[in-house]
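Help needed: design a sequence for this.
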């Protein structure tokens, strides 16, 4: 898979985990589009990175209507 096929390859270099965590903390609950706009990345990149953070149990999501919303997991 090339970097162009993998939105996370470039995302890890440009946007740190804390960029996404801080955004969710500020906007919670936040849609993927809101996170992407606040961080300054594409929606696709935000979705990819947020799912990685979810796999690490740092954030979680749920459906609200047609939107996936993100929130911080309890530490």
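Sure. Designed sequence:
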């Amino acid at each position: 898979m090339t970097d162009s096929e993998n939105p996370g390859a470039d995302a890890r270099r440009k946007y740190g985990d804390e960029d996404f965590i801080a955004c969710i903390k500020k906007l919670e609950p936040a849609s993927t589009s809101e996170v992407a706009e606040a961080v300054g990345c594409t929606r696709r990149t935000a979705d990819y990175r947020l799912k990685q953070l979810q796999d690490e149990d740092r954030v979680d999501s749920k459906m609200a209507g047609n939107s996936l919303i993100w929130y911080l997991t309890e530490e």
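The beta strands are 30-31, 59-64, 67-72.
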